Amino acid sequence: MRALALAVLLAVPGVAAAQTADTLTGRVTDAAGQPVPVATVEASELGRSTTTAPDGTFRLALPPGRYTLVVRRAGFAPVVRGVTLLGTVAVDVALTPSPFRLEPVTVTATRSPVAADASPLPFAALAGEQLRQAQGVSLAHVLEALPGLRTLSTGAQIGKPVIRGLAGPRVLVLENGSRLEDYSWSDEDGPSVETGFVRRIEVIRGPASVLYGSDALGGVINVISEQLPDAAGGAKLMRTGFTLSGATNNAEIGVAGRAEGARGTFGWRVAGVGRFAGPLHTPAGELDNTGFGSANAEALAGWRGARGGLSFRVAHYGGEFKLLEANGPDTASAEQGGPERKLADERVQVKGERVAGAWRLVAQGQFQRHSLIEVSDDTVPGGGGSLTESEAFNLLLQTASLDLLAHHGASALQGTLGVSAVGQWNDASGRIPLVPDARLASAAAFAFEQVALAGGRWSLLAGARVDARRLSADADTSLGMGAQTRTATAWSGDLGVVWRPVTAVAVSANVGRAWRAPTLFELFANGPHLGEARYERGDPTLVPEAGRSVDVGVRWGGRRVRAELAAYHHRIPHYIYIRPDTVFIDSLRVYQYAQAGAELLGAEASLEAEVVPGFTARARLDGVRGTNLTAHEPLPLVPPLRRGVTLAWRDALELDVDAYARQDRPNPLDIQTAGYTLVHVSAGREITLFGRAMRLDVAVRNLFNTSYRSFLSRYKEFALDPGRNIIVRLSAGDVD
User: Fold this and answer.
1) CA-CA to 380 of 20 to 30 Å: which in 12, 110, 477, 538?
2) Regarding beta strands 615-628 and 285-286, do their DSSP bridges make them parallel or antiparallel, or are they unpaired?
3) At residue 332, what are phi and psi to the nearest 5 degrees?
4) Which helix (H) or strand (E) holds 570?
5) Pairing relationship of beta strands 88-95 and 22-30 according to DSSP bridges
6) What string of DSSP letters covers 141-173?
7) What angle do CA 63, 735, 352 make, to 5 degrees?
8) What residues contact 460, with CB distance under 8 A and at least 6 apart?
């Protein structure tokens, strides 16, 4: 503990300056030995990078230690290489041409950078041009194109990520490695993340509680911000960027701006995004009360010393999101009435790190304030039809978290030792009782190690974690409950292996155990849920879910062909679900939360090939089958089979075709929908306006204005999904 606290102090430039950095130099060439200029060379552990000169040379000042060096340049396959730095070390790298968009490193799978093909955990990422084109107000909608991921949607502006059939409190969302807390039990409260501020998004498909604790049962989504700019050699740096966007379906307008700079060891950035939209339109007409407005911002500052760094980040995500009702107002008055969610999320993050020999010590803390309010416009009695805003509920969740990590990697054995702590306070008010006021305290310790054997042909990974938590809930007469305290202890584990019989092939297998605690709503709900036309009751005797997952996979990465196949089996003995009762209260059927055994089996497959130089084709397939083993019935809201094909010409033109099957194993509570096929097209090019280089992108979603209802849409019973949408985006000053 003292060493980790000292690491933060020593990270301050005045302290760290007494230490001297070593130097990593080298040259980047192509396969013919010709220099590759403007290639990015990054030491992933510290996030420090530089670009190559016209002659392909580079120079990085780093503390002594072992680093994961990543070299990338558009049009080439990225190279990942482990480098031990002591004094001045020279590294020459040869890049080979590649038509594919590759993310070579993951930091989420092990909490420290590791080559993606060396991790047995199923991994996917969204970055670069793909992320730029997908940017939107909903994180879940942005990620939906990745294998195994879907969206439980409330219109186009609110969505909850679904990973391999699991969603809500079974999927953990991180921002720069710190957990984001929200009301995961509410279908109308998605992750509070602005994708316009993001460098890349990493997804672990499968259990990861061994690293992140409760809620990482189905998978983890880690949203990673841009690195702060670095002024090499003490020079002064200043740059700006902007994005303007518009969409036709809901008349959405987006404006984003960013300014950043650096001088010596100090770097900073400020950014803001505003999005405003009217009601959605389907092929059948307008959807009442579906507009939204959001305003999001962030500010960062940091110092980088010879052996460490210290950074601060403040972020705000908020807006007003209108909600469609089955018996909502007529079109003329739609935007003047009906329910509306008011969301405000503020976060303060602090991170300090220190390199000490073979160890890299990290301390990171976060305070998050998450406010969720639902209001509706009610008619004033005797007011001649005038409306007044009425507050249905007001929820406030405040969370403080701290992670102390010690990474090591001076040899073939590398890993992380860590402790984590979380404190949380929940306050609830409003005329609709949902959950009681409550307080949560939790602490954990874990170890995670990875070793390379036989010259890197074998990689073994193992980890273990213990969590302890205490939940104290206040008495609430409206919910019919007295004050109570619950304690729980849970363990998690992971064991995986990767075998590379040849350079281009990686065969992986992984066994993991993960868990998640019941939510306040699952424990203590006792009231009407009008959106679902039912009366819901929680069960305070629910125990934590604990699941065991087995994953196997094969990855093949050739120069012109890439393929991946993954299969999994997930068993959850105490799966929490809701079932109908025979009792009615105020004409609403009572639905009771309960537990049962459950299993999910599924697979994901993808194939990508360069047909001719510059022209690539991608095919993908994913599906999952979920079963309640106690009730002998399918699990609810399990995504149907999905198939897709993408044809792309460089970064200039792309055609996507996605086919969604009919869910032939619906739960008795599910509303069945027909299968459908959607076609999307997009195009983009670099242009020059007013003497400045810019990027113009145009995309058409649902090109043929197809009428369909997504099986995972909360509006499917009474509304179609959105029709054709033309999106235009003009951007300048983007940082790759």
Assistant:
1) 477
2) unpaired
3) -65, -35
4) strand 561-585
5) parallel
6) HHHTTSTTEEEEEETTTEEEEEETTEEGGGEEE
7) 35
8) 450, 451, 453, 496, 497
Classify 493 as helix, strand or coil.
strand
Token code pair at residue 201: 């998004």
pLDDT along the chain (736 residues), means of 10: 42 42 87 91 86 92 85 89 85 90 84 85 85 81 91 88 94 93 81 88 91 92 88 75 95 95 91 95 94 95 88 95 67 56 95 90 97 78 63 93 91 90 94 91 96 89 96 94 94 96 94 94 86 84 95 93 96 94 89 95 96 94 97 95 95 95 94 96 93 93 97 92 96 66
This prediction's pTM: 0.91
DSSP code string of 106-133: ESTTTSS-EEGGG--S-EEEEEHHHHHH
Q: How many residues does the chain have?
A: 736
Rounded Cα–Cα distance for residues 640 and 261 (Å): 47
Give the model's pLDDT for residue 7.
43
CA neighbor of 243 nearest in space, from 689, 696, 700: 696
The pair of three-digit structure tokens given for residue 250, joined into one six-digit string: 């809901």
Q: How many CB atoms within 10 Å of residue 487?
A: 10
Q: Indicate the pairing of strand 252-263 with strand 266-277.
A: antiparallel
CB atoms within 10 A of CB 151: 24
Residue with tokens 């984003």: 256
On whether the CB atoms of residues 680 and 656 are closer than 8 A, the answer is yes
With beta carbons less than 8 A apart as the criterion, state whether 155 and 290 touch. Answer: yes
Angle at alpha carbon of residue 495, lines to 491 and 500, rounded to 5°: 160
Q: Which region, left, alpha or beta, applies to residue 121 given φ > 0 means left and ψ of -120 to 50 means alpha?
A: beta
639-687 pLDDT, tens digit per residue, is 999 999 999 998 899 999 999 999 999 999 899 999 999 999 999 999 9
Output the pLDDT for position 326: 64
